[in-house]
């Protein structure tokens, strides 16, 4: 009878949701914690940790989500207290937060902080966000992290880009291509990119930056009046110290120089609230990880309590964007009239592939025809064209109405769709994304001497003067 009672007790323990029995060596202590706070975690240790976490907890899923330039799959870790990991089901009623770590070799703290965060969520060591799904990319840039391993350091010679921080529009790397696929499958409401600042600051532990607020809609008021103030309060504001280092409030810092090529610039084009949360190297590593962990935990809990507000604001912003007739480009600050549609010649296959990857709605023109469009033209000699930089080209551009011959198979892209901001920031010649800076759309010659045409044509909205 006593033996039977013991087995019944064991069965009850094992049947308890997400409460498995562990031996001491399976206690899910992270490499960071084992090292007493030094930055030593490797790629393999990170992935092995998440594999074990997903094996033992029904609230954690580890997914392979595409390729990377290093030959290793890009992984995604998802926490959902309900144990549901079908993205289509999750998106219906949950708030989704996506955290990306390790875009460059310097960005270490987020890797360690996220490992602790996902474990703490799985083990219910922190308040459970019942209305929120948390997803994290453990390492965005494996090669940059692997190169920090003593065995490989200074011994890898490769042409692969080690810094992904400005590749979120052009997507030259497989890593950012896979990120785009993850982003559109999840459609996160909040995106956090954890970063490390190289420049030494004056004592502040944490910094943040959002995308430019001009085109953020009403969600910018939530960021300014709710999220950041409450995040500051949760971090303790000016009232506490960290080993005699002044713990000031979360500080704004212009971390990203080029928008929308950066991760938060890119995600903001889809009405996702994007944030950099960064520490700096002037603070001891252990404290940087601890403060970043606290910030990520607080963002999750604050957003979880505001789920309906955030979702309603973003839905309202999406609807209002489709009603706008003007738009302010992110970097150049030029105000443009929003066209009804764009026409892209079919010869730009790489660009068309980018649009497909970004779930842009488009159709092929069914027959050769003449169409009334507005085009950008440039008057300059053939010899001087290669000498003009982008800034001078923009100054010389003229906009004019004309009829153009459109071929069967050319691409028609309406702007009345979810990707409206993405289209404007990638197709307008006055935008400042890397497509424009690298001459992805070369000017095409015309029958007229010294007249060149920008090969993206606008079908103007009927309400445009």
Question: What key phrases describe this protein's structure?
Answer:
alpha+beta, four-stranded antiparallel sheet, disordered N terminus
Using the CA coordinates, give the radius of gyration. Answer: 25 Å
Q: Total number of helical segments?
A: 15
Which regions contain 5 or more consecutive residues with pLDDT less than 50? 1-25, 238-247
- What share of residues are in beta strands? 15-25%
Structural class: alpha+beta
Question: What share of the residues lie within helices?
Answer: 25-40%
**How can the largest sheet be summarized?**
8 strands, mixed
Q: How many E strands?
A: 20
Secondary structure elements and pairings:
Layout: H1 2-15, H2 31-34, H3 43-56, E1 60-64, E2 75-79, H4 87-93, E3 95-100, H5 109-122, E4 132-137, H6 142-146, H7 174-186, E5 190-197, E6 207-210, H8 219-235, E7 241-242, E8 245-246, E9 251-252, H9 263-268, E10 273-280, H10 285-305, H11 307-323, E11 326-328, E12 335-337, E13 341-344, H12 349-357, E14 363-364, E15 369-379, H13 390-396, E16 398-406, E17 411-414, H14 420-427, H15 434-437, E18 444-445, E19 451-453, E20 457-459
Parallel strand pairs: 3-4, 3-5, 5-10, 6-9
Antiparallel strand pairs: 1-2, 2-4, 6-10, 7-8, 11-12, 13-17, 13-20, 14-17, 15-16, 15-19, 18-19
Helix pairs in contact: 3-5, 5-10, 8-10
């Amino acid at each position: 009878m006593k033996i039977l009672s013991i087995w019944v007790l064991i069965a009850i323990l094992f049947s308890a949701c997400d409460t498995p029995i562990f031996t001491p060596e399976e206690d899910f202590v992270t490499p960071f914690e084992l090292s007493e706070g030094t930055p030593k975690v490797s790629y393999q240790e990170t992935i092995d940790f998440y594999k074990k976490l997903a094996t033992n907890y029904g609230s954690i899923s580890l997914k392979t989500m595409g390729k990377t330039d290093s030959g290793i799959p890009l992984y995604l870790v998802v926490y959902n207290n309900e144990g549901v990991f079908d993205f289509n089901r999750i998106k219906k009623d949950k708030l989704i937060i996506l955290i990306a770590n390790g875009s460059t070799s310097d960005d270490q703290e987020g890797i360690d902080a996220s490992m602790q965060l996902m474990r703490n969520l799985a083990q219910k060591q922190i308040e459970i966000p019942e209305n929120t799904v948390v997803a994290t990319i453990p390492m965005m840039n494996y090669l940059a992290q692997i190169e920090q391993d003593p065995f490989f350091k200074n011994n890898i010679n490769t042409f692969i880009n080690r810094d992904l921080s400005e590749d979120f529009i052009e997507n030259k790397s497989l890593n950012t291509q896979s990120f785009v696929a993850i982003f559109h499958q999840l459609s996160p409401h909040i995106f956090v990119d954890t970063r490390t600042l190289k420049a030494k600051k004056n004592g502040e532990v944490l910094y943040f930056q959002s995308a430019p607020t001009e085109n953020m809609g009403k969600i910018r008021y939530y960021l300014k009046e709710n999220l950041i103030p409450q995040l500051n309060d949760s971090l303790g504001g000016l009232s506490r110290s960290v080993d005699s280092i002044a713990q000031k409030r979360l500080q704004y810092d212009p971390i990203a120089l080029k928008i929308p090529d950066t991760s938060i610039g890119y995600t903001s084009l889809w009405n996702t609230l994007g944030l950099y949360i960064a520490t700096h190297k002037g603070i001891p590593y252990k404290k940087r990880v601890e403060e970043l962990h606290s910030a990520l935990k607080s963002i999750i809990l604050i957003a979880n309590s505001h789920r309906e507000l955030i979702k309603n604001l973003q839905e309202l912003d999406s609807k209002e964007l489709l009603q706008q007739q003007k738009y302010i480009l992110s970097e150049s600050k030029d105000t443009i009239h929003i066209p009804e549609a764009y026409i892209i010649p079919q010869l730009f296959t790489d660009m068309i592939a980018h649009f497909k990857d970004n779930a842009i709605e488009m159709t092929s023109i069914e027959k050769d025809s003449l169409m009334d469009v507005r085009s950008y033209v440039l008057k300059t000699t053939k010899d001087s064209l290669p000498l003009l930089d982008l800034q001078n080209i923009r100054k010389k551009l003229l906009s004019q109405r004309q009829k153009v011959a459109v071929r069967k198979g050319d691409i028609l892209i309406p702007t009345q769709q979810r990707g409206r901001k993405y289209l404007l920031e990638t197709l307008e010649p006055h935008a400042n994304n890397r497509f424009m800076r690298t001459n992805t759309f070369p000017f095409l010659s015309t029958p007229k001497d010294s007249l060149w045409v920008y090969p993206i044509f606008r079908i103007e909205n009927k309400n445009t003067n």
